[in-house]
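TL;DR need structure tokens for one chain.
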Amino acid sequence: MKGSLHFRFILLLVFITAFCSYAYELVLANVLSVLWGNVVQQYTVTTGIYIASMGTGAYFAPVRMNAKKVFIWIEVALAALAIVSPLVFVYSDVNLKSVSPAVCYGLITAIGFLSGMELPLLLRILESDSSSADKAEKALFVDYFGMFVAGLLFALFLNRQFGSLQVNLFLALANLALAWICGLLWGYQDKALRKFEIPLVSVVFLVVTWAVIQNLFIYEEQIARWIIVN
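>> reply
TL;DR here they are.
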């Protein structure tokens, strides 16, 4: 991939990961506000925990490892956590009330921690593009801009049109799609990715996408049933 094209592709990844990361934060806060009430408190606490977790993830990002391989699996892990988090939130609130806050905030911490690793890894990948000046500054601008767009779209369109649960599933599929696309593109230059990551991530992407499409309404109905019982 040529230098300028590679740089633009990384910036696109930065934008999408920032969008998904901030949207996850809003979805999780919204689910907790439905379960526990006190919207201001849930959004404030969730945002604080999420941002602190992102900072911790950025600090511990394994940039000395194969950044491309780690980034791909972080996207897969984020997708998995995103899909199960609303189910775990509601299930723990109904059946494990004494530890429900610890479970919910623990999941928020895990998602924030993984999200915090994304930008350092992408900047590490970007270092191979020596022709781009002030690339880190541009990546940071795109990162903040992606969060801004996510906030606007979630509040004005996504949550109203689809609801938090569907938005959450769309974000999870977006993370899986990123892992798959990155595996395909980077695999041409990295034999290790071709041998393991590309086939496995491709299978995971196809299976999860099919499962989400087939069980979307069951997923929403189960969560709604638990909330009503609660």
